[in-house]
Amino acid sequence: MGINVGNKTIYLSLALIFLISFTSIANAGKETRVVASRLTLDLSIYGNIVTWAETTTDTAWMYNLTTGNITRLGHAGNSPVIQGDKITWWDYDKNIIVYNISTGKEIKIVGANTPSIYGDNVVYVRSKYEDGQPASHQNDESNSLYLYNLSTNEETQLTPYEHARFYPSIYGNKIVWGRANQVNSGEWSSNISIYDIPTKRVSDISRTGTAAGGEIYGNIVVWVEQKNESRDIYMRDIAKHETRQVTFDNNSTSADIYGDRIVWEREYWIGNNFSSDIYMYNISTNETTRITNSTCAGDPAIYNDKIIYVDTRDDPESQEYRDIYLYNLSA
Q: Which residues contact 211 (CB under 8 A, 6 or more apart)?
């Protein structure tokens, strides 16, 4: 018995050393503050363009990393999302706006919200009228997933009016979103589902009933599992039919993915002070890297070698100024 216990202790020690060896602190790359003194929220990046919403003015903005120019896009009910040369967001009139950077032209999709875009396809949520109440007053029990093609100007309802969470994500011909199901009176579960546009097939990515969010890039879907008070990042390779747990700290959220890199915000406490920093996971090497050490960083987004995030290091008490920082992994 004593030998067995000893073997187990040695095994756990080796496992701990293994985990530590695959968690590192970023010692390469360069951090730059790109936008200062703004109350920013929910970042997006593609190429050299960064987008965000500003809560003090309820507007969508974009910033060109090459020229340094800041452009006001319009009123926003949620944060804008960029892909290619198109930016889309939901305005306060409950319409979706698609802005073409190259032409400066806008397209409006009436009565819809929380869009995501890939190429000429815009995916979003639309709510139906119920009990005499307008669609804007409904919750996800009355939501349907929709697709709008910018080339053909055709709108397609993808799912029935039931249980579609807000904020879908699209890559290529695949759409992921959160789908709620009622377990019993007053209790709901939530799973990540995927919709294949050519085949119209719907399948579940997670079946735990505790999944939230959902982002897709290529064949990889990432999301957050919320179990009781804990939150961890998971991923699934839909081509290999493999699911992997990425974090084990119970305090990880706000995941984003590009290529084989996943970034997220890890929350923790230092004494009585709430803190957060940005981490990155490389799918190919199975290595986790801590990107920031400011204890005030969150809400990351990634494109290629560029990671952007919000940081309140210059105003940690009131957090009135949420600056935008860029960490360039290859600089």
A: 178, 190, 191, 192, 205, 223, 224, 225, 226, 234
Q: Residue 214, by phi and psi: left (phi above 0), alpha (psi -120 to 50) or beta?
A: left
What is the rounded distance in angstroms from the CA atom of residue 205 to the CA atom of residue 234? 11
Q: How many CB atoms lie within 10 A of CB 316?
A: 15
Q: Extract long-range pairs of 188-194: CB within 8 Å, 24+ residues apart.
A: 190/165, 192/221, 192/223, 194/221, 194/238
Report the b/e string of 246-281 with b at 16+ CB within 10 A: bbeeeebbbbbbbeebbbbbbbeeeeeeebbbbbbb
Token output for 234: 């998971």
Half-sphere exposure of 6 (CA within 13 A, CB side): 3
For the entire predicted model, the pTM comes to 0.89
Choose the weakest-confidence range: 73-87, 180-194, 249-263, 293-307.
180-194
pLDDT at 234 over 60: yes
Rounded Cα–Cα distance for residues 325 and 314 (Å): 12
Using one digit for the tens of pLDDT, what is the confidence trace for 149-172? 999 999 999 998 777 888 899 999
Which ranges in the chain belong to alpha helices (H)? Answer: 2-21
- Beta bridge mates, 81: 88
Residue labelled with tokens 């709901």: 188
User: Measuring CA to CA, which residue among 310, 87, 116 is closest to residue 216?
Assistant: 116
307 near 263, Cβ under 8 Å? yes
pLDDT of residue 6: 35
